[in-house]
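fyi for ur records
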Amino acid sequence: MGEFALGQAVPRFEDPRLLRGGGRYVDDMALPRMAFGHVLRSPHAHARIGSIDPAAANAAPGVLAVLTGADWAASGWADLPVPAGLKRGDGSPAFRPRFPALTADRVRWVGDYVAFVVAATKAQAQDAAELIQVEYEPLPAVVATGEATQPGAAAVWDGAPDNICFVHREGDRRAADAAFAEAAHIVRRRFVINRVTAASMEPRGAIGDYNPAEDRYTCYTCLQRTHSYRAELAEIMNVPESRVRVVAGDIGGSFGMKSAIYNEVALVMLASKLLGRPVKWTSTRSEAFLADAQARDNVTDAELALDRDGQFLGLRVDTFAAVGAYAQANSNAFVANLGTLAGVYRTPACFAEVTAVYTNTNPMRPYRGNGRPEAAFVIERLVDEAAAELGIDRIELRRRNTIPPEAMPFKTGLTFTYDSGEFARNLDLALEMADFAGFERRRAESQARGRLRGIGVSNTIERAAAPSFEGAEIRFDRTGTVTLYSGSINQGQGHETVYKQLLCDRLGLRPDQVYYVQGDTEKVAIAEGSGGSRSATLGGSAVYLASERIVSKAKTIAAHLLEAAEADIEFDEGIFKITGTDRTVSIGEVAIAAMKPEALPDGIEPGLIASAVYTAKVMNFPNGVHVCELEIDRATGTVEIARYTVVDDVGTVMNPLLLEGQIRGGVVQGIGQMLLEDIHFDPSSGQLLTGSFMDYAMPRAGDLSPIDCESNPVPTKTNPLGVKGAGEAGNVGAMPAVGNALADALAQAGVRTIGMPATPERLWRAIREASAATR
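which gave:
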């Protein structure tokens, strides 16, 4: 099946159904007798609740229930899960406050959960929520991450007056300090990385459906992981996992944001149990800005030590990272990606310290890259700054310090051990594609038009597919066609397409012979889900192993059907053949025979079915080079991306069309954060000032140039397919490439630093101020 085989640019099989309106999203689902929920949210960033009076709401038309913090406490259900395992600076456990689905005494961000109204219609629930009388006593709030630990800052939690959740240290502090003591040059910079939101196409939603006859719960929601989610839900509800079913239908984007058990999920489950009918909640876009977990938001002081020849000796990084008002489950996961700070360089001694702080803002979650883009931004901006300060060409400085292929496996100065990669070749290829040598000519042309032209390079690496597992099952039926059950959950990546390609490649099937199933705990036996660029490695390897087991069993059956020795049977393109003869049987025919016990050899169970669980013992390391070329209009501060080039190494390329889609999507998100996107709170009141797409600027097609992508695949030996993660690579490389291009352009105007995002207004002001200072 060559046209559909692995490595071919096959368009996504999922798209026709979705484009024709056949999607099955949470908001599409309608169950008999379904009621609707609405959350009453705090209008204050920090306030004490004096009283809550739901009487008027309870009496409103269509209202079935009004739940408050007191009702949640009386339910006997556990609070939402919070991360564990980390410590504070003195070695004491991290401060982990309880996370109830509804607060009873204090609200801690604008959008905090005060009450949940359930009514016959969504409009009735919304109207009734406005009738709830709540007395608030406003309290001082802190919303800026860099100010959370300053003297006099308001305490988000009384139990943590310093607002510190945990302190995480990684690397060798003594070795780093020694390297700095002997350094000829030390380059120091502060980097403030702003807060963003995932802004997924499909807002969050959930349906809780309790069946009293069976005492079982079904949760329909949008998420990336069903089985571990079921375990957490069961723990909240104090029931065995077997009493809980979790179903994820189609998912319109997640990027890590949706996979927590949010308050609304617990509330629809509780309300369904109390009312004996399904309860549905779906977010509006405005509500998403108030309630979705957000991302990034950290302040980093970084310094790089170099010898007289520009060789990197040491790296020290001190970061304050936002947690938000509550420590949401997995919100601490970004510290597992601090190794990205070491980059593709031979820096022998590195040390990083992260102080995670509470603020009166939305909780934080992993978001595409989850610490990797921030770390890549810090090291790659620092390298450019070092080059400028030392008077060394920025490309030459990178070349002097890049890890060569012959050094693999290479243990970096910060956690990671790289198994493969051609970092210098990536750089050479990308610079050639981007016509880096001709840039100065283009810059001169821009200057003649009154524009500032800059070019930025990033050479980044990240970890993917952290040690974990994933399951897959292949079931042939009585007609010889297949159902593939996958533990990975697709939110737009194209899992169905790639896994079908894998079966076409391994089993000689056609795509229309394969039915794909995901995201249902009662259909998929074992799964871990998607995230951290793991699906190709873990999910793909599980499908691969299951296909190997199918072939092995089918070969035994084929030998019996052909009356030949198994050793004489060869398999290719879906056909079993006796070597040296024209006697054959197809895998479909074998599958049909496998359902007939009388047609099978002794000791072979009926059915051509195989499952596999692939366990990754080590991670892999996708890497690549991005080159961004842009222009800034001096008069308006408007930025135009003139050219964008990517050369990536994601190991074996399973589908180049889907790979380019992943890379380009990530690049757009990185560009969006650098130039446009920003979650901003009023510093005095804590009110969200960017609560709609009128204020929160999303990248559009007109903001971009074509993105030229090429692959330099260096297959890894850490998994049977040789693949490396691809889902987050575009975002990881884009932020530093665009940041370096901005700095290169602005240097011509005398601007040394620019805040993130580099909006036209911010750039215009910086250029004017620099111009005024030189007069």
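The radius of gyration is 28 Å. thats all i got for now
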